[in-house]
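Q: My labmate handed me this sequence with no annotations at all. I'd like to see what the chain might look like in three dimensions before we decide whether it's worth expressing. Could you predict it?
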Amino acid sequence: MKIKLLLLLFFSIHLYAQNDVSVLLIPKELKEKANSVVQYQKIDVIIKSQSSYKTKIKRITTVFNEYGLRNIDAREYYSKSEKINAIEATIYDAFGKELKKIRKKDFIDQSVADGFSILSDNRILYLDYTPIQYPFTIVYESETESINTAFLPSWMPIDDYYESVLKSEFSIQFIPDLGFKYKEQNFENYTIEKKESSNMIHYTVENIVALKPESHSPSFKNIVPNVIFGLEKFSLEGVTGSGTTWEEFGKIYYDKLINTDTELNPETIKKINDLTKGITDPIEKAKIIYNYVQGKTRYVSIQLGIGGWKPMLAKDVDRLGYGDCKALSNYTRVLLDYVGVKSYFTVIYGDSNKRDINKDFVSYQGNHAILTIPLNDKNYFLECTSQTNPFAYGGDFTDDRYALMIKPEGGVIVKTNGFTPIDSYQKTTGTYTINSEGNLVAKAQIISAGIQYDNKAFLSRINDEKELHKSYKNRFSWISNLKIEKIEIKDNHDAIELVENITFSATNYSNKAGNTIYFPINVFNKNENIPDKYRNRKNDFVIMRGYFDTDIIEIDLPKEYEVDFLPEVIHLDTEFGNYKMNIEKKSNTKLYYKREFTLKEGNYPKEKYEEYRKFRETIAKQDNLKVVLTKTKTE
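A: Here is what I predict for the chain of 635 residues:
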């Protein structure tokens, strides 16, 4: 009897050990709307000294489908400054049975610079796992060390939509004399347990249900809970420093990481001086140097922080003709300095979703580097990684956000240039003809600027005619049987405008019923985007960027028909923007169509979302209104 009891006890313990990562243990509400569930996450950060910290991670993630694979996050970066002490993963099936053990040697080891030798000491170990079944569970564990205490790990227990969290823990041990600090964000709607002592903070959160994305939501990081950490006494790429203000922080950065590299090949110095000879205007000089860099170099994509913080030598960029964002920005800075134009290395968050350097929290932030030229109370911001951007134009990747400019006397928070709706215009002037068979022939000039230039500039770089025609057919998707007759595109870098001249035709554009023809009045610029409807919206909403469209179109009608119905004049005026549309009958065979639409950027409470949605719905309906023609009676 005792033997049976012992066997039963052994079996029970063994069964529990197998099933402690079983999908069966996940509560039903956490599986709903989830591509993956973090069953357990524990992150321990130990600050050992001013120039060393260690991070230990254990994460148990259950993946339900292919979309959840990206939430495994089984990767670590390493370099001369960062070491990977341990990394491994174990795969389990839905019932907690072990399927595969993955050791450090089984992870893929790759340069973050895709094999470019000058940057080969910055590398990544990552897991590339192809599942044989869903769901499965992965237990991932790692231990890393870094000398860069200027940039401490942050805590964000949930980092993607459609991912639930059963339990997440984060602890950070610190040395009080180093000036430890932290900032909590978006804790309001979550029950987070916090324990704090003189040298440690510990956070725990449980049962976070998966979030579903909503149209026009704020950026994910502005919705979910997160904590950022920093030290006033830190180390960056082997250089120790102390900074309680941005000025102090920036001075260390400039003295130790930026201004140590000013050497260039004498032949290059002579060439750029020859290019700018006789030119006194600093901006004209800067344009020449910017064009020189665009023609000479190419961009190797590495995020700031992953490839280290110190730029590669300017003379190496000059010799090799490539670099990452910090290398190309610093190279351009050095070139400008040689021709007498002062510019400053600037750290920023580069993303089409606007993200600010947190100006109230002095720490190393940002993922990208640009260049700033301050002149006559105006800042010119140079995107040095682009071979095609106009001078001082960064588009939606760096617009309208706080950045850190690194000057000799210290760091300065600056705001990059934004675009008002009037700046981001699209001006369409055109004509089209409807014949008695209902066929369409149309011609227009479309001039785009600001963010609308950014959205279309790629068109000028498409060399394949079929690909270009395909792009326009997708753009004018409401026109069936579209045939492109002629396209001329001019990218005007001086005005920062894209000018499109296009001629096209379409058979059976109009619908015919007996003696009646009816056709959509708006040929060139339908705004059909209607935001999704929500019964119970969770988030406030954001209109990230505004714009202004104006359309002036002359319409020729078939002589055998007369106008039977014209849409009425409409004028909508809301806090989100305004819309005007008017059709003027000049004669029996000629109409003038005028349309204006202004969308205003802004942050709005969720209670106003339905009002905004109806505004956009009304515009979509107006843009699809039809003119009705009736055949003239003949004797």
